[in-house]
Amino acid sequence: MKLETKIVHISKPDELTGAISTPIYQTSSYVQEAPDVNKGFAYTRTGNPTRKVVEEAIAELEMGTNGFAFASGLAATDCVLKLLKQGDEVVAVNDVYGGTYRVLTTIYNRLGITSKFIDTTDIENVKNAISSKTRFIWLESPTNPTLKISDIAEISKLAKSVGALLIVDNTFLSPVLQNPIELGADIVVHSGTKYLSGHGDVLSGFLVVKDPKLAEELKYIQNTTGGVLSPFDSWLTLRGIQTLPLRMKKHSENGLKVAEFLVNHPKVDKVYYPGLKGHKNHEIAANQQKAFGGMVSFSLKDDTIAAATDFLTRTKIFLLAENLGDVRSLVSHPVSMTHKSTPIEVRKASGIQDSLIRLSVGIEDIEDLLEDLKQALS
Ligand SMILES: *Cc1c(COP(=O)(O)O)cnc(C)c1O
């Protein structure tokens, strides 16, 4: 079956009742016939039938064997980091998601796990950063908010050669547009809060692997530390996933048109979109992705926070909100919102200028979107 068919039917009718929509098993525990004799479920932290459906769905979509659902993207990230021990080192892309940067540099740093943040768009930098302590290489491609592209397949070969695991946060593209496991990644991370659920109404996070030993370790940490996704939020995310291919197609079409519009606007300085021929790693993106997605960033010729704020408060369809991947178009200002906790030097080094504006282009009519950008820029 093709992806669009498979995904619509990703939740199977309930075996017990035939319910076409996966039931929300809102229960904490399950009655047992005798001690340890049960129908496969004992306690919802360990397993829940609604969560199981969404976990199997994400594993299938990401070409893995096991999926794990968490209460947020950061809970999923935290579960991966708990594979580490004191003295281990993480090599991460330098404009990694702000929350990932924060957990690495505060909580895990305090526990004796160090991180290096480098520009992974050039494989030489990755080679130079690796040491005998490197356990993880942590990528996002494209990154947030400057849409940098790293060569996942090349970096995965490098990771294997030094015995490190490659972790790819695939939130920005979703499994419909990129499958890191196929490119050699060991663990895929998702914030399901974004494109997977797609409607700005739920927080969720996922991990996918295909190595049985890694699956067992993550399952152990998930159950032991307990950051699991609730039955209702599992159901909401599952419902979102059913329209994912349709939405990603429209996000990508609109994203490209918005990027092309911005490139030609006199007040706009730089435009960051992997679908533009002028993007530094356009060819790599075209190879490893199925389309270019809905995230577009740009800076203004008047590179000031004031000019950015002026724009951000004038858009009418693009809503000013700290999220992405919503069906609605959203706009944000990384410097004062998502990257507030990133130190200025780190921020500047990864190209996050004062006027940088990030758009999460929604699925509205493209003419309305362009009109809104035009009036806000004028
Ligand atoms: C939002 C986001 C996260 C964190 O997810 P939450 O669901 O907000 O905890 C991680 N990585 C990326 C790329 C994100 O955009």
Short summary:
This protein is α/β, with parallel strands linked by helices and 378 residues long. It has 14 helices and 12 strands. Belongs to the trans-sulfuration enzymes family.
Largest sheet, in brief, is:
7 strands, mixed
Number of strands: 12
What's the helix-strand series? HHEHEHEHEHEHEEHHHEHEHEEHEH
Give the neighbour order of strands across the main sheet: 1-7-6-5-4-2-3
What is the beta-strand fraction?
Answer: 15-25%
Helix tally? 14
CATH superfamily of the largest domain: Type I PLP-dependent aspartate aminotransferase-like (Major domain)
Name the ligand types: pyridoxal-5'-phosphate
Describe the structure.
- Belongs to the trans-sulfuration enzymes family.
- Its cofactor is pyridoxal 5'-phosphate.
- It holds the Pfam family Cys_Met_Meta_PP.
- InterPro entries: Cys/Met-Metab_PyrdxlP-dep_enz, Cys_met_metab_PP, PyrdxlP-dep_Trfase, PyrdxlP-dep_Trfase_major, PyrdxlP-dep_Trfase_small.
- The modification N6-(pyridoxal phosphate)lysine is found at residue 194.
- This protein has 14 helices and twelve strands.
- The protein is an alpha/beta fold and 378 residues long.
- The protein has two domains: 3-241, Aspartate Aminotransferase, domain 2, CATH 3.40.640.10; 245-377, Aspartate Aminotransferase, domain 1 (Alpha-Beta Complex).
- The strands form two sheets. A seven-stranded mixed β-sheet has the order 1-7-6-5-4-2-3, sandwiched between helices.
- Helix 7 (174-177) links the parallel strand 5 and strand 6.
- It starts with a helix and ends with a helix.
- Residues 72-74, 97, 99-100, 140, 144, 169, 171-172, 191, 193-194, 203, 205 line the site of pyridoxal-5'-phosphate (PLP).
